[in-house]
């Protein structure tokens, strides 16, 4: 099976990528965490990433983020397994939102 790979990026790089067209930031934390604080993008909890993949279809670049990088890494690896997404660029924010602190 051929699969895509993700690229680790910093929080600053995420903020730069957000400005590019066809880029979507997916925050995989729980809704209450997203409501408490977020850096933009959409909220799809880790447990829902497979059920809501269709929301990501139109985008060329997908940036995945969470609090400390653990859940987002799992999501990035899952997105890399989607055969139809071999042409998408998948990014993982290493260190998550806490990286800034």
UniProtKB/TrEMBL annotation:
The keyword Cell membrane does not apply. GO terms for molecular function: transferase activity. Residues 19-77 form the Rhodanese domain. Keywords: Transferase. PANTHER family: FAD-DEPENDENT OXIDOREDUCTASE (PTHR43031), SULFURTRANSFERASE YTWF-RELATED (PTHR43031:SF17). This is Rhodanese-related sulfurtransferase. The lineage of its organism: Bacteria, Pseudomonadati, Bacteroidota, Cytophagia, Cytophagales.
């Amino acid at each position: 099976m051929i699969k895509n790979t993700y690229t680790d990026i910093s929080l600053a790089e995420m903020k730069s990528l957000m400005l590019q067209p066809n880029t979507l930031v997916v925050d995989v934390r729980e809704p209450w965490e997203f409501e408490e604080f977020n850096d933009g993008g959409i909220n799809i909890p880790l447990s829902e990433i497979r059920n809501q993949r269709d929301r990501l279809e139109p985008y060329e670049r997908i940036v995945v983020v969470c609090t400390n990088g653990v859940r987002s890494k799992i999501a990035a690896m899952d997105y890399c397994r989607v055969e139809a997404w071999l042409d998408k660029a998948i990014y993982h924010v290493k260190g998550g939102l806490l990286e800034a602190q």
